[in-house]
């Protein structure tokens, strides 16, 4: 969680990082989302030699040892959620989006782990995501795909692609080439800094007591037209708890999903949506975090009161596109959301034509829709 990061923690050198788990360290995934309109940016349609979304997905599948048919190419293991959102008055001063108007807004979404393997053991993956679809009555919807990481490991689509390529296992050894990974880290000190932040943070015990961050910069547009560069977080109202690595390893394979189901059976779970406002000079680069003293505005409260396994017709078939934005929220010049959008469009098309096997957490549900 961002508040648990030691910003003064020493940054390890490349050799130290490579002695740790290089596969996990160098395959930290971002949540990718979909829109065909962003292909002009990274889709390769404008210039044939430009890095394209198909290249991204091909590289991700190769790094993962091949696609898992019917599942998302990243954050493959997930569960569907539903509930509501109510905007807070302070939020209406900085964004005219209908979701902040104060009415009860229906919400559907998904919790997931970043691993491309939909049957990976929960304790093996330290990156979690929350994806949401907010649908106010009579107004455009808002979709978001947010992670529990302190920023991203890179700030450009090319660097993300290069990271995936460097992480791809050598067929002869079944492991990434240390020389390629060392070269990548040497060229990307922002990735080394990100990995230091990841090591310094405390990992929440589950989905329900974790905080999720937009990571990228977006523009909130006020009723008077004023635009502000922001990043937002869904901050858990549940008391924070953590587990030791040994405790996580001793848990069942699906413990985070099982714990979430059990928690929602006891009652709704809530998060505060908090926007952090950039100040002049703050970098709009996903791999760079902003100082902790930046102004924060509580935009509203999210309530999740229903959880169910993925199946045809619910969140399994939704692209949580970070560029599906309502009036009052707009993309900034951060290039990552455009790349995420284009890549996930390709991923969605591919898995849509594949047989959908049952989820690893199939046939389970808890709570009741509000």
Structure report:
- With 370 residues, the chain is α+β, with helices and mostly antiparallel strands.
- The protein has one domain: Catalase HpII,  Chain A, domain 1 (Beta Barrel), CATH 2.40.180.10.
- 26% of the residues lie in helices and 21% in strands.
- The chain contains eleven helices and eleven strands.
- Strands 1, 2, 3, 4, 5, 6, 7, 8, 9, 10 and 11 form an eleven-stranded antiparallel beta sheet that branches.
- β6 and β7 form a beta hairpin.
- α4 packs parallel to α6 and α4 packs across α11.
- The chain is globular.
- The N terminus is likely disordered.
What's this, in brief?
By secondary structure, the protein is of the alpha+beta class. It is built from eleven helices and eleven strands.
Please outline the major beta sheet. 11 strands, antiparallel
The radius of gyration computed from the alpha-carbon positions, rounded to a whole number of angstroms, is 19 Å
- Overall, the morphology is globular
Number of domains: 1
Task: Based on the model shown, name its key terms.
Catalase HpII,  Chain A, domain 1, 26% helix, eleven-stranded antiparallel beta sheet, 11 helices, single chain, 370 residues, 21% strand, 11 strands
Task: Spell out the blueprint of helices and strands.
Layout: H1 14-19, H2 22-26, H3 39-42, H4 53-63, E1 78-87, H5 89-92, E2 104-113, E3 128-134, E4 142-147, H6 157-167, H7 178-187, H8 189-200, E5 212-213, E6 218-221, E7 227-236, H9 245-249, H10 255-266, E8 269-277, E9 296-308, E10 329-331, H11 336-352, E11 365-367
Helix pairs in contact: 4-6, 4-11
């Amino acid at each position: 969680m961002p508040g648990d990061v030691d910003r003064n923690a020493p940054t390890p050198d490349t050799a130290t990082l490579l002695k740790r788990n290089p596969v996990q360290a160098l395959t930290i995934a971002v949540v990718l989302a979909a829109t065909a309109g962003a292909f002009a940016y990274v889709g390769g349609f404008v210039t044939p030699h430009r890095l394209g979304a198909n290249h991204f997905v091909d590289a991700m599948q190769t790094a993962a040892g091949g696609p898992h048919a019917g599942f998302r190419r990243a954050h493959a293991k997930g569960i569907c959620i539903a509930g509501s959102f109510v905007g807070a008055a302070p939020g209406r001063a900085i964004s005219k989006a209908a979701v902040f108007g104060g009415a009860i807004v229906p919400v559907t979404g998904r919790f997931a782990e970043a691993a491309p393997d939909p049957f990976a053991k929960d304790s093996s993956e330290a990156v979690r995501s929350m994806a949401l679809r907010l649908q106010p009555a009579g107004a455009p919807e808002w979709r978001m795909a947010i992670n529990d990481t302190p920023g991203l490991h890179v700030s450009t689509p090319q660097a993300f692609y290069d990271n995936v390529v460097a992480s791809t296992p050598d067929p002869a050894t079944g492991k990434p080439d240390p020389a390629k990974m060392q070269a990548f880290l040497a060229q990307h000190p922002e990735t080394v800094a990100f990995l230091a932040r990841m090591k310094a943070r405390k990992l929440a015990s589950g989905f329900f007591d974790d905080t999720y961050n937009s990571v990228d910069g977006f523009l909130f547009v006020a009723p008077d037209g004023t635009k502000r560069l922001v990043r937002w977080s869904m901050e858990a109202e549940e008391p924070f708890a953590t587990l030791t690595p040994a405790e996580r390893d001793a848990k069942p394979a699906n413990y985070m999903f099982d714990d979430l189901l059990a928690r929602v059976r006891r009652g709704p779970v809530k998060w505060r949506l908090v926007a952090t406002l950039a100040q002049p000079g703050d970098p709009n680069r996903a791999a760079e975090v902003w100082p902790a003293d930046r102004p924060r505005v509580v935009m509203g409260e999210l309530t999740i009161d229903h959880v169910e396994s993925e199946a045809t017709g619910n969140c399994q078939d939704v692209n949580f596109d970070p560029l599906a934005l309502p009036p009052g929220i707009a993309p900034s010049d951060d290039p990552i959301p455009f790349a995420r959008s284009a890549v996930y469009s390709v991923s969605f098309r591919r898995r849509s034509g594949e047989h959908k096997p049952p989820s690893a957490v199939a046939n389970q549900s808890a709570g009741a829709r509000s």
